[in-house]
């Protein structure tokens, strides 16, 4: 999977979690929480989706990597590197 | 001849990924999520209805009474949308008229941050900066913070000596989660902030509608729902969950998610012998929260009740005082007024009075004393209500009371606890799976994880842990590769 594909996957997950938010204008280096209305339950949803779709386990101590889009992409790209683009 | 008893487990599978014990909001929400994540789930409920304390009952004359639909925070909308359905979440509506009436003050509020700030300034003369700082402090409280301060200390810090302000801030939360001034401040802060975010909300259609919708959704997602099914035992071998016994029948499962009371789950369903003695020592320190009494008043067909508020915190006590709130000779009550908007089309009204109560005050009465005391509770409640709804006795044609004993009978919770355990229960609940592989608990604990929103969200948090566990057992369970 490419970096762009990984980014798109995160966007898809966010679109499910926060359907009323405009996610097209997300800035990669600003905290997601400061751009869209996300609470700790929403971050849990991201973790569950990643497990469900890709069998990726994000341990609690790594949650901080998910704070920004750039963080998500750099944390997840190595984990998803060898995966084909899955249905999302 | 007697009919043979119905087999409520007819057609049950011999094994499941997860057996969820109890269909409270935590149990149902976790069952739904686990099923959506692809697991085979059995939901076992001992009662004939689902919902746990999120329940209702019907009485002759077309009365429908809600037990715990007094109000919940705005966050419930999102929780219902994400873990249930859009349609369910669209039925949440705001309660705009919350009232306080006691010897110290009488106010109406929309119960949100803006209005509370206004009232604290104008009515109680508190400085803007103090109010803002107070709101910031409670908003920043997290459940994993170290417990340092009690709510009393928190109030003492911001509003020294102002027992009227304490009452204004505390009374609703005491009814919402059973917490007192002497509980950790975060048990106050988290629930208070949840409400203050946007106000108090309710579900249009009533509890019966909500639970019916949830049941449909559970079935759509493939949950095997079994009512009249008492889970009697959780089987553990080699520190790992093996199965359960339900109505005398053994069923295998890889994991158990118990929505039964935390202490019941450990001490009775599993058995202390399966846990580390050190852990059990901590379990013994867990205190149960208090229980409730309620009086349900059904208004006659054709009669009306003027809008005197949606929620009314009424008290004759001079000051806020936990002991008095729990006392059997109570003069502090919350009235919930259910107008026809709650069940559109029915044109019916009902009023429910709730008080926090102690189990031991009701448990050891003789049958006649119990009856007499319930009658007394009903009559004094009607007397108190007369002040707000003149002529109330002429308007009602059904009055009935419930006590901590009633709550115990229907939910099986020890001492009929309405709000699970005190704060220390949270850690025990979270640590269960470290003691026994595959054993999880979700449901009212630690005061924070209680109420409709807390219980449902805790169900999600624990379903996440359960899913993680199940996927470690069978790594092939990846949806994407299917
Ligand atoms: C009088 C009252 C008023 C309330 N008002 C409000 C309110 O206005 N707003 C709000 O947000 N919250 C309110 N609450 C609190 C709220 O109702 C609860 O916190 C919440 O519903 C608890 O959900 P739960 O999932 O923890 O479990 P519960 O609702 O306690 O459900 C547990 C379920 O497990 C079942 N069970 C237990 N053991 C077994 C077994 N061995 N086998 C099979 N089944 C079993 C029980 O029958 C029950 O159905 C109120 C509570 C009370 C009592």
Task: Describe what this molecule looks like in 3D.
The complex is a heterodimer of chains A (88) and B (482). In chain A, 52% of the residues lie in helices and 0% in strands. Chain A is mostly helical and 88 residues long. Chain A is globular, with a radius of gyration of 12 Å. Chain B is an alpha/beta fold. Chain B is built from 18 helices and 19 strands. Chain B has helices at residues 25-36, 75-83, 86-89, 113-122, 128-139, 151-158, 163-177, 185-198, 206-220, 262-271, 277-284, 322-326, 360-363, 367-386, 392-395, 404-411, 425-435, 451-473; strands spanning 15-21, 41-44, 56-59, 63-66, 72-73, 92-95, 98-101, 106-109, 200-203, 224-226, 231-237, 240-246, 249-258, 291-299, 311-315, 332-338, 350-357, 396-402, 439-441. In chain B, strands 1, 2, 10, 11, 12, 13 and 19 form a seven-stranded mixed β-sheet that branches. In chain B, helix 1 (25-36) packs parallel to helix 18, helix 4 (113-122) packs antiparallel against helix 5 (128-139) and helix 6 packs across helix 8 (185-198). The termini of chain B are far apart. The chains are: A mainly alpha (88), B alpha/beta (482). At the A-B interface, helix 3 of A face helix 2 and helix 18 of B. The complex binds flavin-adenine dinucleotide (FAD).
SSE blueprint and pairings:
The complex is a heterodimer of chains A (88) and B (482).
Chain A: H1 3-17, H2 32-35, H3 40-54, H4 69-80
Chain B: E1 15-21, H1 25-36, E2 41-44, E3 56-59, E4 63-66, E5 72-73, H2 75-83, H3 86-89, E6 92-95, E7 98-101, E8 106-109, H4 113-122, H5 128-139, H6 151-158, H7 163-177, H8 185-198, E9 200-203, H9 206-220, E10 224-226, E11 231-237, E12 240-246, E13 249-258, H10 262-271, H11 277-284, E14 291-299, E15 311-315, H12 322-326, E16 332-338, E17 350-357, H13 360-363, H14 367-386, H15 392-395, E18 396-402, H16 404-411, H17 425-435, E19 439-441, H18 451-473
Parallel strand pairs in B: 1-2, 1-13, 2-10, 7-15, 13-19
Antiparallel strand pairs in B: 3-4, 5-9, 6-9, 7-8, 11-12, 12-13, 14-17, 14-18, 15-16, 16-17
Bound molecules: flavin-adenine dinucleotide.
Flavin-adenine dinucleotide binds next to helix 1, strand 14, helix 16 and helix 18 of chain B.
